[in-house]
Amino acid sequence: METNVKSACETCGLYNKAGLKKLGIHTDNFDFVVALAGNPNTGKSTVFNALTGLKQHTGNWPGKTVTRAEGGFEYNTQKYKLVDLPGTYSLLSTSEDEETARDFILFGKPDVTVIVADANRLERNLNLVLQILEITDKAVLCLNLMDEAERNKVDIDIRTLSRDLGIPVVPTSARFNRGIPELIQTISEIASGKIVCKPHRIKNVPKNIEKAVKTLTENIEKEFPNIPNSRWIAFRLLEGDKQIINALRTGEFI
Amino acid sequence: MKDNNIDHIIELSNELRWQIGDEFHDNLTESIYADAAEIVKDSVKTQDGEKRFRLDAKIDKIVTSKTWGFPIMFLILGTVLWLTIVGANYPSSLLASLLLDTVHPILRSGADSVQMPWWLSGFLIDGVYLAVAWVIAVMLPPMAIFFPMFTLLEDFGYLPRVAFNLDSLFNKSGAHGKQALTMSMGFGCNAAGVVATRIIDSPRERLIAIITNNFSLCNGRWPTQILIATIFIGAVVPKSLSSFASLLAVIGIAVLGMAFMFGVSWALSKTVLRGEVSTFNLELPPYRPPRFWKTIYTSLIDRTAIVLWRAIVFAAPAGAVIWLISNIHVGGDETIAAWLINGMDGFGFLLGLNGVILLAYIVAIPANEIVIPTILMLTVMVTGIGGGAGAGVMFELDSINATGDILKAGGWTLLTAINLMLFSLLHNPCSTTIYTIYKETNSVKWTTVASVMPVILGFVVTFLVAQIWRLIF
């Protein structure tokens, strides 16, 4: 056992570097599972490398990560398994990479979902963010590429954004390791239940649809009390998603 | 009871789906975008919005323009290859003289001093060690130059622009535009290219991309092309132009590979894989200045080391096999290797190749990287040159000229060289790629098609070239 003398800085809750151990590919006996989702080309793999200390190749083109990559880190004696999902624009259609991402968030039931978004293209990125927030309520928005946003003079009010989305928002520049300690701290607080999210749910839905969704949601909740994503399942059932119908039969998502 | 409830929910959803009509998907998407717009309005402020990404747009206008897009693409490819060809020369001969001229004799005399039996030292030192040393000397320098440069381009954001430029060509051949990305990955490694096809949604177009990925020259084949072009093509022209001529030859082969990819994609989409071309969105990501040293480091550690390791892993047993087949005799005094080579020589001649090359391609199915070392070793054995090196010993070469001398002694002509370059482009994928294709398609049929079709094409093309060549010259 190592016993290091810790300086004041290292023991501070905001910059707890001493508590962080990058575990690379060693992910046995983890306490929490963290999923990394987001649009293509927002730097998910860079965030993944920054958290795990792995050197997975990152490329500047959409679709770089086609398979799930896994890695781990240890923070304050708790082990986290990190899963880097393929980048997707949406969870509503059916290509293989989108299905991989959706299935993991829905069936893998990660303890925390980190949604990586490009700060320069927030509006387009929110499409996916809002969909994920229908599925899980344990999420944090990692607003990446802040260095580019600063250069492009895009100014984002983090607090308002966080309040509107109902989840923590952490600005980062993963390429330069900026914001990563804060991100780790936030992940651990969500995982331990210290932060409880109250995520935004899709508004602006036409009345007739909202009514149908509500009826269906109530029925689903009667059958499966306490599931966080009954409304999203209702959306999928109305769409006629065969996979979700099957999952409902097998009870896979409980 | 529970099943009943679930059936009830599903029935209810079917009913409700009828009520709300089929615009549900669009409506939902619209609601999400409306929400997104509201949120952004409250929290994001953009100053001088029009000026954003102005530089990016300017670069894009040039590199994706109708006039300049293709010339710039070839110029970049040419520069990367030229730097690889010129830059790899010196370290290659340095490594060769170290591993082959210095270490190998030391190992041999070491084996003699402990009185190792001849067959064991032959097997280990002349077979396994020499094969590995050869692969390192031939492969490492070009890879260590090519991969980092390719990775820098990738990180800069150039690949999606290539996809943009090539999109109309892919469209015309009935394939998916994202195949340009998987093709580019194939230039590094075909197995990686095949895995990358997962970004293509349509199964039909994905299959086309998988089957034709082998037409991207992979890193195992670049050194072969570069070496043969330097020895034979470079020698036809005046010395001052020789590196330029060999560069053109290598680019020519790479472009020919792309032409075959378009041709075969087209043929497949008109016959067994008929269907509509699907549309897709391709994001042109912002240009990002790569973090130079980090990229160099990662690509050396990640790609170069891994690929080199793979080559070594396959080269060691191949070296052992080569040594064995050239030292075990069948019947009279003929070795297995000589027997096989003689058997295939006739067919090889028809293709403008020879039995040695064909046998080398069989031995090298596990890894394309070891084709040239195998050819050299077998040639030395057949021609009997090389002094006291003994049967099945990979010859020690400290310069490209020495390689050329051996090949010429083995009866090689310019035709053999050209056809070898063609056959290196058009033959079966390596065993790793074949296995990857099987894993990705889950179909024996398509794996067979993807493996056999390129060989048949290779036979046809080299046969035609040989016959026409012999008619003219």
From TrEMBL, chain A:
Source domain of life = Bacteria
Database matches in CDD domains:
FeoB
- Provide the transmembrane region boundaries: none
Cite a single GO MF annotation.
GTP binding
Annotated ranges, domain FeoB-type G: 31-193
InterPro entries recorded: FeoB_Cyto, FeoB_GTPase, G_FEOB_dom, GTP-bd, P-loop_NTPase
The name this protein carries in UniProt is Ferrous iron transport protein B
Q: Name one Pfam family in it.
A: FeoB_N
Q: GO terms for CC?
A: plasma membrane
From TrEMBL, chain B:
- Alphabetic keyword roster: Membrane, Transmembrane, Transmembrane helix
Q: Which residue spans traverse the membrane?
A: 68-90, 220-237, 244-268, 307-325, 337-364, 370-394, 406-426, 446-469
Domain named Nucleoside transporter/FeoB GTPase Gate is located at 138-228, 308-442
- Gene Ontology cellular component? plasma membrane
The UniProt record lists the keyword Transmembrane helix: yes
| GO MF annotation, one | ferrous iron transmembrane transporter activity
Ranges of residues in domain Ferrous iron transport protein B C-terminal:
250-298
- InterPro entries named among the record's database cross-references: Fe2_transport_prot_B_C (IPR011640), FeoB_GTPase (IPR050860), Gate_dom (IPR011642)
Please give the name of this protein: Ferrous iron transport protein B
Which species? Formosa algae
